[in-house]
Design a protein that fits this description.
The protein is mainly alpha-helical and about 180 residues long. The protein has seven helices and three strands, in the order H-H-H-H-H-E-E-E-H-H.
Amino acid sequence: MTWTDARIAQLTRLWRQGVSAAGIAEALGDVSRSAVLGKLHRLRLLRSRNAASAPRRYDGAADLQAGSEGRVRPAPAAGALSSARLGPPEPPRSPWRETAFAPLPGTAPRHWLSREFGECAFPVGGEGDELLSCCAPTHPRRAFCPTHHAIAFKPVSPAARATEQRRWVEVAQRWAA
């Protein structure tokens, strides 16, 4: 996520309208409350709100239609908005997620708790009590098949490995001293 001028302007406008940091994060999407608070701190806006004004949650369409002077325009008629959508819109599902959590060809996914020892535990469907696991054969002492193991565990870069090794050497030298 990058802070573009438009996103900073929206952040500033919502903050001045009294929306909480969590509400602003919800309105901007793909940003955390902590990131919003950090940006407000760097913009020196955290102390700009009066102590008497209580923060409020993001109200969705009403906040997005606010004018430049901070007044909120009336929201569209209730019939114009989908009654099923109560909060901010759901982000589109990632195509990577759709392919990574799909069953592998030639496997027979089963209920997660009914899999046998040595079968892949990677989730490929269902939710909650109906969670399905891949159930492909695994290597000894591993929970996932080679395909899902490659998805779940990314190899460490040589630079990160060297940094970690340097840290261990420094710790060992401090203990030895």
